[in-house]
Inverse folding.
């Protein structure tokens, strides 16, 4: 077989993330021209801090989307975990903070396990199952909160510092995001369960024939998604020092949007953590950029919706182009 | 042989006749029982209120504002797609009507403009799903943000108050004790029944929902059909805007009507429409709409707050989807896992033994009924069969034990092999 030589230039431009990066740089330049005030260390840090929760949700959603499913309940899980953590915290101030972190994770894992059980073992359609649990978890968050709000003076310093404190000049919440990105990258790229997630998403039947237990892997993906949502619920309350049952409404859309921007295929089996990182940075710049422009804050929803549609369309067209190219190389297409 | 033999004429007439026992356990009938049950609960809980003039009418009216969405959603789910942008589309349609009323256009034109705006939103969804082949979930999630975002941009925090006066009359008045909205809903659903169950278009929907590839190869224009269904959904969202605005007393703001898409999908699923596509009837969701109205109203009377009702809607959605899954296969799978150590051989042995035992039991009952035989013969025969049953049972147990021990041996050997 003839060895195909590809130039370095082609290798770089052929990468899907290259297009993303170009888009990102263009966005940065446009933003720099229109709102130069955006580029200070302080404002960049604040921008990332305010969007950090999205990154955690996006990593969780990514796992589920790679299996070919979708998780609409992450925002409600966030709300439930946040409400339970802060309500218990405000009445037990002496308990160390890591307990609340573990509690948030635990609640998330329970929620994720419920989703995973429905989708993995009972074979429900993911969108219906998580649409249902989205309302269920949000309702439970309301019941747990009793409709109350928690304000900054009710949060202990340690709790708030867990997200808002600084380590080496960077907010703790960003360190957590960085750690989650690294762990997710290792998990998806270099461990057997991570590779199984891709296998399930690419072709369920082949994966099953190859001895992969589909139900187990789907369950795992949902549990990870739930755990990260629970953790982000705790971090949300710590970050803003505010909590109510309606927080984080429609965050699941943003998380999915980040995944799609980052090149995660909605049909499953494709997507890498570096794409999601770029997608996350892009989304944070866009939202921050919009919020800086006067009178544009009402545009937020419409712009986000449009971005997802365009991103999916680009994804689909590139995928089709790749398919065509592969067919041509094989000589199947004349 | 192939060419000359006469092809027997196939008899295509439906042989199955109406059977009461089958009719009574149909899903639609079960829904009616649930509806009756809710009514009984309501009567027992609040007898004074239930028989007051106007209570039942207002219960039904409370559930009618999303009924057109339900009808449109049946077709969408039938295709195996989903549309979560319906609530936003509904708001877009109401905004179009409200804005054109503000501009002083004639009333008829305003209503038509609202319907067209709905249909246009549906067409946008449909184009992306059918022709660009984007997944319906993602398209409609993002268009729900997009449409509502557009409404937010145009209306900001204003409230539109200028609507045709018949909107409120439609939602709140009764003719001879029957709500007008119910009459209209039933009329539209009859049209939908005719389309789905009596026309070629309806048949096409079933085929596409079951297998789009087969549909394509049998000459159905899948793209066009999908497009039509999505436009119809948008149009129905426009119709829903009439009911909705009337229900809300003729005022619309950009944040209204969130969560209607979930309710519509939940009702469809409750009505027996499969979310995988290609399964379901119009009757079920029509009854489901009434069930939901009565349920929500009853819970409201029992001081259950709105958020707890959401929990219930979520559970109804999940349980309604799960019920059809509970069948013989699932029971068999659970049995396999719990009792037969996940081994098909053990399962087969047990099933065979159970069959044999059942055969002997049948023979025993037959022998007991047999009038020709003398009593002693009967007793002897019954005893013989019972002995056989015992022996079969023992044999089955023995075989199971052997197979299980073999399984253990295999596992041990495998472990040894891998540890070396």
């Amino acid at each position: 077989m003839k060895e195909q030589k590809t130039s370095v230039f082609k290798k770089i431009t052929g990468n899907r993330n290259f297009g993303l990066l170009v888009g990102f740089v263009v966005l940065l330049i446009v933003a720099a021209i229109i709102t130069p005030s955006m580029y200070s260390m302080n404002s960049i840090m604040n921008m990332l801090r305010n969007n950090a929760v999205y990154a955690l949700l996006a990593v969780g959603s990514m796992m589920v989307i790679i299996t070919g499913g979708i998780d609409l309940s992450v925002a409600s899980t966030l709300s439930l975990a946040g409400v339970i953590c802060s309500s218990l915290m405000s009445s037990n101030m002496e308990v160390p903070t890591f307990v609340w972190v573990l509690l948030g994770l635990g609640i998330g894992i329970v929620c994720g396990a419920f989703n995973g059980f429905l989708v993995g073992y009972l074979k429900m359609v993911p969108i219906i199952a998580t649409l249902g649990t989205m309302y269920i978890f949000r309702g439970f968050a309301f019941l747990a909160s009793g409709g109350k709000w928690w304000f900054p003076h009710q949060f202990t310093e340690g709790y708030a510092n867990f997200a808002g404190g600084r380590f080496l000049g960077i907010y703790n919440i960003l360190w957590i995001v960085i750690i989650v990105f690294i762990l997710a990258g290792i998990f998806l790229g270099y461990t057997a369960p991570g590779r199984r997630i891709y296998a399930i998403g690419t072709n369920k039947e082949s994966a099953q024939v190859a001895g992969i237990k589909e139900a187990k892997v789907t369950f795992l993906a949902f549990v990870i998604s739930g755990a990260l949502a629970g953790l982000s619920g705790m971090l949300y309350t710590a970050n803003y020092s505010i909590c109510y049952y309606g927080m984080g409404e429609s965050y699941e859309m943003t998380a999915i949007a980040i995944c799609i921007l980052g090149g995660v295929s909605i049909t499953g089996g494709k997507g890498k953590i570096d794409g999601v990182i770029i997608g996350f940075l892009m989304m944070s710049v866009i939202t921050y950029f919009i919020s800086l422009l006067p009178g544009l804050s009402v545009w937020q929803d419409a712009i986000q919706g449009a971005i997802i549609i365009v991103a999916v369309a680009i994804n689909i067209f590139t995928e089709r182009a790749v398919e065509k190219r592969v067919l041509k190389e094989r000589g199947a297409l004349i | 042989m192939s060419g000359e033999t006469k092809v027997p004429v196939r008899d295509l007439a439906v042989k199955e006749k109406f059977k009461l026992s089958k009719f009574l356990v149909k899903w639609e009938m079960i829904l009616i029982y649930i509806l009756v049950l809710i009514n009984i609960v309501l009567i027992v809980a609040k007898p004074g209120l239930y028989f007051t003039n106007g209570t039942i009418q207002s219960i039904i009216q409370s559930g009618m504002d999303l009924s057109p969405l339900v009808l449109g959603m049946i077709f969408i789910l039938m295709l195996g797609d989903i549309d979560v942008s319906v609530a936003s589309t509904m708001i877009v349609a109401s905004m179009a009507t409200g804005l054109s009323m503000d501009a002083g256009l004639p009333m008829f034109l305003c209503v038509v403009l609202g319907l067209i705006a709905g249909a246009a939103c549906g067409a946008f969804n449909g184009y992306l799903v059918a022709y660009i082949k984007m997944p319906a979930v993602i398209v409609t999630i993002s268009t729900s943000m997009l449409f509502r975002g557009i409404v937010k941009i145009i209306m900001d925090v204003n409230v539109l108050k200028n609507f045709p006066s018949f909107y409120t009359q439609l939602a709140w008045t009764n003719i001879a004790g029957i709500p007008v909205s119910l009459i209209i809903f039933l009329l539209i659903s009859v049209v939908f029944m005719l389309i789905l169950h009596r026309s070629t278009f309806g048949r096409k929907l079933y085929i596409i929902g079951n297998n789009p590839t087969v549909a394509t190869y049998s000459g159905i224009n899948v793209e066009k059909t999908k497009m039509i269904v999505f436009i119809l959904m948008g149009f129905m969202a426009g119709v829903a805007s009439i009911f909705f605005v009337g229900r809300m007393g003729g005022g619309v703001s950009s944040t209204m009507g969130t969560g209607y898409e979930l309710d519509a999908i939940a009702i469809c699923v409750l009505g027996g429409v499969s979310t995988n596509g290609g399964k379901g009837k119009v009757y079920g969701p029509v009854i489901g709409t009434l069930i939901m109205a009565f349920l929500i109203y009853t819970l409201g009377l029992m001081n259950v707050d709105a958020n707890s009702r959401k929990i219930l809607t979520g559970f109804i959605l999940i349980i309604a989807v799960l019920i059809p899954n509970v069948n013989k296969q699932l029971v068999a799978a659970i049995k396999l896992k719990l009792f037969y150590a996940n081994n098909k051989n053990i399962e087969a042995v047990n099933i065979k033994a159970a069959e044999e035992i059942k055969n002997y039991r049948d023979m025993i009952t037959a022998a007991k009924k047999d009038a020709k035989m003398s009593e002693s013969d009967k007793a002897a025969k019954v005893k013989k069969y019972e002995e056989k049953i015992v022996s079969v049972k023992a044999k089955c147990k023995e075989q199971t034990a052997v197979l299980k021990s073999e399984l253990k041996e295999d596992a041990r050997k495998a472990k040894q092999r891998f540890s070396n």
